[in-house]
Amino acid sequence: MAAPFLSIQHVKKSFGDNTVVQDFNLDVEPGEFVSFLGPSGCGKTTVLRMVAGFEEPTAGKIFIAGKDVTNLKPNQRNIGMVFQAYALFPNLTVAQNIAFGLKVAGASKADQDKRVAEMLNIIKLPQLGDRYPYQLSGGQQQRVALARALAPSPKLLLLDEPLSALDAKVRVSLRDEIRSIQKRLGITTIFVTHDQEEALSISDRIVVMYGGVAEQVATPFEIYNRPSTKFVANFVGTLNVLEGTVVDPALGKVRVNNDEIAVKHSLNGAKRGDAVSLALRPEAMALGDYSGHDTELHGKITDVHFLGSVIRVRVNLGAETIALDTFNNSRTPPPTIGDSTKVTFASNDVLVLH
Amino acid sequence: MRKGGAWWAWLTFAIGATYFLVPLIATLEFSMRQRNNPVFSLFGQGYSFGVFNNVFGDPRFQQTFTYSVLAAIFTILLGVLIVVPTAYWVRLRMPYLRPVIEFVTLLPLVIPAIVIVFGYIRMYGSNSMLPFLGTTGGTNVLLVIGYAVLSLPYMYRAVDTGLRTVDVPTLTEAAQILGAGWTTIIARVILPNVLIAVLSGAFLTFAIVIGEFTMASLLNRPAFGPYMQNLGANRAYEPAALAIIAFALTWGCMAMIQFLSRYAPRSANRPN
């Protein structure tokens, strides 16, 4: 395994009595794309700003390429950063914006021009070099901001919610473009977002943060399918939480309403009669029998939402109502509200929340 | 309703314009009454531009006007050097100090120039620790400093208003992360984006310095203000002509501010 390119060690940040980041640890491999995901105020931007050098950690160390940068100023760290508010210099043209870092570094005019042309091609805006920022759309401005950040060939790229100010369509296309450019250049990248879909779609790994703490650091697949805490399970994707009572801890048997189900995951030392929270993703369940589904619950359909490719059905199990997704099939009519139904799923898909 | 509103607006404008223009026209009319070689006559009264020729041809006019223009240029430079970094830093790092800074910059409007200049004479006399008044050059420097103080309320407000249109913290961080130091950030990022505001402040400063009398007179410097006063005490028509020239200069400055502000959108940060 390669040495970590970015290493954040036991970093803590307090503003007065308010601790916003607590004992944060993370190693990022060279060329890796890591997303910080979490709700507002969880500390994700503060960690990013500490890596950039805009905030000084109250405790802990930050290393980039093996060098301790904890006390270095932002302009000494060789980092590229894209801001949520674009932050293009309004008095400079697109080309001058992209060349800014190179000019500051003392690159020759010929080198600046060459690099600017290269970057304009990478962001697919070769014809807009002479425009001013106010003459560009939001998406174009953010692409220019990306080009400006990458032009001086930084060691690390930081993206602070770069897509938040854009409309939905541009957000998706720019997201894919950012990932493709990042892969092509192989630059180690930290991406801050509160949008789980964004994080899941482009990251190599995701750090889910809550209350200044990294709740889970894992691949998008693991974060979604094997959330390690109740917060991660609830925050990432839609989740049905079922409250049950342990019947047989050895066999993983839990009673949920009037049904008994077997859970494959560990019950974390719960004893007979203990309450336990189980969770299921809507897409892990089906109405009626389904291949590979070995567990069933019974209830009544209370709501049907047609969402295009997917139909979301709500089923009342007695004390709880769960939501499940079925694919839309034009040859089959959607389920009917009020019908009694059997909900099936694989016992392996039942998550035990900590 | 709408038409009635427009009528009232025009009436108000006409009253205001009359209030300002009648004394000016009267002054202009009086200044042109000099009877030598009238160029044209109106209602039996002969008029000429001779008085303006006298004023512009007077070597003391040229000397004092040049002196005041130079003093204004140095005052503007000093004002920009003091105000831009201060307003920038207050906006970036010490927003809690804004009320204090605003109060300080308003003081020159409250404290009369004569009080300030007497303070200077006591503080910087030839026997003091900083004997600015011991030499002509030192007195000139002190005068420029005094002018910078007098123009502080206008310069600070103009720059601060300009900074309000720019996302100062984010642009600063964007420049910092690209490797820029503080001098580069102020010179290449902040100043160009508040240039129109700085120019507004500069023209206001110019207008103040050109007509300033108290400081220049008490520091005994050959500035335009004392020259105007001196001329007013000894001549009849020339002071009226000078008043018109001074107004033309001030209005010219205002027109320049208006003209330059048309170019503001090019450099202003527009939210998407």
From TrEMBL, chain A:
GO terms for molecular function: ATP binding; ATP hydrolysis activity; transmembrane transporter activity. GO terms for biological process: quaternary ammonium group transport. Pfam families: ABC_tran, TOBE_2. Residues 6-236 form the ABC transporter domain. The keyword Cytoplasm does not apply. The keyword Transferase does not apply. One of its GO terms (cellular component) is ATP-binding cassette (ABC) transporter complex. Keywords: ATP-binding, Nucleotide-binding, Transport. It comes from the Bacteria. PANTHER family: SPERMIDINE/PUTRESCINE IMPORT ATP-BINDING PROTEIN POTA (PTHR42781), SPERMIDINE_PUTRESCINE IMPORT ATP-BINDING PROTEIN POTA (PTHR42781:SF4). Belongs to the ABC transporter superfamily. This is ABC transporter ATP-binding protein. It comes from Mesorhizobium denitrificans. The lineage of its organism: Bacteria, Pseudomonadati, Pseudomonadota, Alphaproteobacteria, Hyphomicrobiales.
Automatic annotation (TrEMBL), chain B:
Belongs to the binding-protein-dependent transport system permease family. It comes from the Bacteria. This is ABC transporter permease. It is a multi-pass membrane protein. GO terms for cellular component: plasma membrane. Residues 61-255 form the ABC transmembrane type-1 domain. It holds the Pfam family BPD_transp_1. InterPro entries: MetI-like (IPR000515), MetI-like_sf (IPR035906). It is found in: Cell inner membrane; Cell membrane. Keywords: Cell inner membrane, Cell membrane, Membrane, Transmembrane, Transmembrane helix, Transport. One of its GO terms (biological process) is transmembrane transport. The chain crosses the membrane at residues 6-26, 68-88, 100-123, 129-150, 194-219, 239-260. Its main location: membrane. Signal peptide: none annotated.
